[in-house]
Amino acid sequence: MENFQANQVYKMLVQLTRPRKILQLCSLSADSVNTLCNGLPDDGCLVTPESEYSSYKHCAQEKKIIQRKGRKEDILKELAALGEQYDMVFIDATEENPINYYNLIMSGNMLRMNGVICVPNTSTSRREGIDDEMGFMSREMTDVIKADARVEQVEFPSDYGIFIGRRIPVSQTIDQSKGILADDVFQGFKGQGILDRLRLHGKVAYVTGGGQGIGRAFAHALGEAGAKVAIIDMALEKAEAVVQELSLKGINSVAMAADISKEEDVKRMVDAIVANWGRIDIACNNAGINMNSASEDTTLEEWDKTFNVNLRGLFLCCQAAGRVMLSQGYGKIINTASMASLIVPHPQKQLAYNTSKAGVVKLTQTLGTEWIDRGVRVNCISPGIVDTPLIHSEALKPLVTRWLADIPAGRLAQVTDLQAAVVYLASEASDYMTGHNLVVDGGQSLW
Ligand SMILES: NC(=O)c1ccc[n+]([C@@H]2O[C@H](COP(=O)([O-])OP(=O)(O)OC[C@H]3O[C@@H](n4cnc5c(N)ncnc54)[C@H](O)[C@@H]3O)[C@@H](O)[C@H]2O)c1
Which of 126, 211, 245, 299 has the most crowded CB, counting CB atoms within 10 A? Predict the structure, then answer.
């Protein structure tokens, strides 16, 4: 028994909880199954007993549906033995034996931490013409869940009633006598699980060179994790385009034009962020340029241009943002170095670039140790060869096949490969890390 309202509730639930695996033990309409599957990622699945009542053959999302043969009880036991866990479980309160299914799921640890249990048809007793016994069963079912300290719950008063429970991370009833250590490891540091500690809500960030490539990916990642982000780029129109993208995702951001090799631009950018948002928590000094020439031909102009952006400009940013952070007593600086700080990438010739990036690592180590005791952590990320416009120059384009042979991962990095690293270094979860060069290169620097 279902209706449009129930479908809307399921839609909202999958959007809020972002499940990867759903276990559906009750019969749902093809519409509802489609709604649930739509909310699953490409590699997600909905597992359901093969049932005479439901055929999902024509469901648009059929490829995500796994139907299992057998009695529900046996299926549950098999799945528990396989160690399967689900983010969302559906049980019908008016079916035979729903409490038995619930107990099997909970004792088999099949409902993941923060997982949601949905029990449709909990208010059948209030509907005319429905067998009293069903009403009794649904009340019995909801009473069992209500009494379970591992789950918190709410009942939606839709036509047929939907009871929703969430498996809370740590139950309030900890039995210390069983040797359970109710410490930060068990309960989470400051009561937060590890994924919550990566959140950046309330943080103010900037990304230089944020208008494209790696900087754009960093800006999206920081924003998705909860930070407000200032997009700094020499090309204002690129920064503005990224701000447009972020605002479509509900992320607060602002675009600013600045040439980070100019002291006055760096000062203006830092002052503007502080005037706008009151502080700077995360400084991503990412803007950089790459030029190629054999060392015997490298001009002073190329050397100076490279160093003015990659090292002098990065220092100006570190110093200006660092002063704000030191006065706040907290901050995270993340510089973009390069695998070229560790190895000499070849066959392209890039003496000035390689040397400037080695300088970024030493600057990071020095600031990282000098400022940590005043709350400012300084780390850098060294990407391998990333597929961005930087390597699409006429000089570098023909070298891609050559590079691939040197990369154990067998492919170039995508900017998305770097996003978790920047969120980790920006979050409080990495507060004990400083002066570190986090290499993300598919193993290239090891060969
Ligand atoms: N692409 C790679 O393979 C690779 C590998 C390792 C490290 N890196 C480093 O990552 C960083 C970003 O590289 P990318 O590949 O995204 O580059 P990119 O050329 O695609 O983008 C760089 C962005 O920085 C901006 N910019 C350049 N100079 C600036 C300045 N003086 N002030 C402000 N903005 C400026 C540009 O307008 C551009 O939007 C650079 O520091 C680069 O050295 C890149």
Answer: 211
